[in-house]
Specification:
This protein has 132 residues and is an alpha+beta fold. Helices cover 28% and strands 29% of the residues.
């Protein structure tokens, strides 16, 4: 079952908004709250994040496109094992690869944050266990 990736509800006085940056591509594995894309209004840039973990199966917009509230801009296949797949996925490193270095840095930061979270949870569990 696929999940729609939509532009969020916007205030009534905001019409079309511009897609400022796209952080994902078809086939990418994303975690909950991973940045998907940014939209730009007259006053601010908003980062749109994934509401659940999964694999991007379709993405219809690119930077510079204009979109409206509640517009479906992509599809995602939810995956309860996305965290494991994300950690173990590595971009292909060859001459035909179109992996952007900023995307690699973003994914590296996400992996680092994941492992820091794991260590934090383990430390808290250790404190709780020793205080019993």
């Amino acid at each position: 079952m696929t999940t729609e990736i939509k532009i969020p509800e916007l205030p009534n006085d905001i019409g079309d908004v511009k897609v400022a940056n796209v952080h994902v591509d078809v086939g990418d594995i994303v975690l909950v709250n991973s940045p998907l894309f940014d939209i730009e209004t007259d006053k601010t840039i908003l980062e749109i994040q994934a509401s659940e973990a999964g694999e991007i199966s379709e993405f219809k917009v690119k930077a510079g496109d204009y979109v409206t509230a509640n517009q479906v801009v992509g599809m995602m296949l939810p995956d309860e094992n996305a965290e494991i797949r994300f950690v173990h996925s590595t971009p292909k490193e060859n001459a035909t690869s179109k992996v952007n270095t900023s995307d690699k840095k973003s994914k590296n930061h996400q992996v680092q944050h994941y492992w820091l979270l794991v260590l934090l949870v383990m430390a808290i569990m250790g404190i709780i266990y020793t205080s019993m």
